[in-house]
Amino acid sequence: MSFDTQDQNKEWKNLKSLNVAQYFHACQEGEFYVQDVDTCSILGDMKTNRYWHSFPIVNEKLVAAGGDNRLSSVEALNGTEWIVTNNLQSGRERHAAVSVPAGIITC
Q1: Model pTM?
Q2: Distance of alpha carbon 30 from its chain centroid, rounded?
Q3: CA nearest 105: which of 51, 58, 37, 45?
Q4: Residue 28, C-beta contacts closer than 8 angstroms, at least 6 positions apart
Q5: Which listed site, 53, 70, 72, 92, has its alpha carbon 20 to 30 Å from 6?
Q6: Would you call 33 exposed, middle or buried from its count of C-beta atoms within 10 A (0-12, 13-18, 19+)?
Q7: Tell me: the pLDDT tens digits for 78-94?
Q8: What average pLDDT does the chain have?
Q9: Phi and psi, residue 28, nearest 5°
Q10: What's the half-sphere exposure (Cβ side, CA atoms, 13 Å) at 21?
């Protein structure tokens, strides 16, 4: 289900079902709803099975970071393929991540 805050009717809408059932939204393969064609699209397999991870947008790419057992690995979606990127300094699980526009934070 989806709720579009920009919709004049302000109501919940039914979406197409996922192709693969998810439990705890665990990921080895990613599946995402594509609004323009009203369907779910399956992406390539991740290099590392993970759950309890974050899924922020970093540098305009979808990123999977951390996960169960305090994973420190990070993968970024490059088209339809997941590529391993830099690791987190320390492993994380059940954490949150926020996508912040470039230029807001300087280090």
Answers
A1: 0.61
A2: 8
A3: 58
A4: 45, 46, 49, 50
A5: 53
A6: middle
A7: 887 889 998 888 888 88
A8: 78
A9: -120, -40
A10: 1
Interatomic CA distance for residues 45 and 31, integer angstroms: 10
CA distance 34 to 40: 6
Among the listed residues 47, 53, 46, 50, the one whose alpha carbon sits nearest the alpha carbon of residue 93: 53
Sheet-wide strand order for 81-84: 57-58, 61-65, 74-78, 81-84
> What does DSSP assign to residue 28?
E
Could you tell me which of 27, 59, 23, 57 has the C-alpha nearest to residue 44? 27
Written in H, E and C, the secondary structure of 2-20 is: EECCCCCCCCEECCCCCCC
Q: Is the pLDDT of residue 28 over 70?
A: no
